[in-house]
Amino acid sequence: MLFHLVKKDFLLAKKYWIIMLLAAIVLPVFMHTKLDFIAGDFLPFFLSTLYIIFLLYSTVSMMEYKYKGSSLLCATPYTRKTIVMSKYFFVISIFIGCCGLYTVAALISPVKVGLLALSEVGRTFFLLSIIFGVMIPVQYRFGYEKSRYIFFFLIFLTPFVLPNIMKILQHNGAVVPVSLPFSPFVLDLLLVLLAFVIGGISMVLSIRIFSKKNL
């Protein structure tokens, strides 16, 4: 049942598949040419993935809001818990797809784009779990119409603010004064586990909110 709900979300956004596929390949390469002062491939991958997930998720939310999709689904054998869970699996599915398409971009791009390291995937997944871990419960609580402008503004402000912050930190030689007794590999795994914990907490909150919502 969960698979069919995730499939339904992809079908709702099918008009944008080609655009998003191209964006997942072209955006990281383009950002590499603009963000060359930052070492590594984290920022281009994070920003491009953030945009793609947000646009696809917002498209599905808009369609369901417009045609009262949640109300109609609740009249079917699908439980509210399953409906909420499908949104999180939808986001994770897009993330996995973006990882694969970024790898394709790194292999075929004429611009030098490095393959993703585990640390870059882990950091991106962690940040996305925070962003959407806040966004999804808030949207269930206040509705798509009330929350869309806030998140639209915040998401599209990110590429203008984050690179400048990283640039300032880099120029000032800022470092995190914390030494942890773990290897980088273990820290990467802990970051991914923490991302799943944040996502799990967010999912529980969303389920509770949606279960009590009067549709």
UniProtKB/TrEMBL annotation:
InterPro entries per the UniProt record, alphabetical: ABC2_memb-like
Domain of life, per lineage: Bacteria
Pfam families: ABC2_membrane_5 (PF13346)
Keyword Cytoplasm: no
Keywords carried by this UniProt record: Membrane, Transmembrane, Transmembrane helix
Transmembrane segment boundaries: 12-31, 37-57, 88-109, 121-138, 150-169, 189-210
Protein name, entry field: ABC-2 transporter permease
Source organism of the structure: Paenibacillus oleatilyticus
